[in-house]
Amino acid sequence: MTTALYPGSFDPITNGHLDVIGRAATVFERLVVGALINPRKSPRLELDERISVVRQAITEELPDVASRIEVAGFDGLTVDFAHQIGAGFIVRGLRAVSDFESELQMAHTNRKLAPSVDTVFFMTSLEHAYLSSSLVKEIAGFGGDVSRMVPAAAARRLQR
């Protein structure tokens, strides 16, 4: 069984993330969405909340592939978590050329740390290429409408 890990903060999950999750779930037999604790970021949502919102979004928005997707939290090195769950692939989304340089560097670093884990890139669909969790958090923080940028589960959570 081919297993892939899609790591990220998912604070909050965006429609761009969901797009990548849905497409990756059609390529791999098992996809684990790993919500990570990133010490360099101050999350708006606690880890348990992020995991819950991601699960709800997948169930509501991706019912055809939801049974092949798991959601889990982790901290530490992504490649260590990939080994822990038996993933041979790390999925990363690319929004623009500007993402590629840092993602390429991370992919090469991960390959050095864990030669048995490879990185696969998915281009985010054009209609979601402008989205980032940081942008969504900023708009939501000022009371703006983010309902077209995030799955319904995330919009409900951000409104609280």
Description:
The protein is α/β, with parallel strands linked by helices. It is 44% helix and 19% strand. It has a five-stranded parallel beta sheet, with helices on both faces. Helix 2 links the parallel strand 2 and strand 3. It is globular and about 45 Å long. The termini are far apart.
Task: Name some characteristics of this structure.
6 helices; globular; 19% strand; 160 residues; five-stranded parallel sheet; alpha/beta
Topology, element by element:
Layout (H helix, E strand, L loop, with lengths): L2 E6 L6 H13 L2 E7 L10 H15 L7 E6 L3 H8 L3 E6 L2 H17 L4 E6 L9 H9 L10 H8 L1
Parallel strand pairs: 1-2, 1-4, 2-3, 4-5
Helix pairs in contact: 2-6
Short summary of the structure?
This protein has 160 residues and is α/β, with parallel strands linked by helices. Helix content is 44%, strand content 19%.
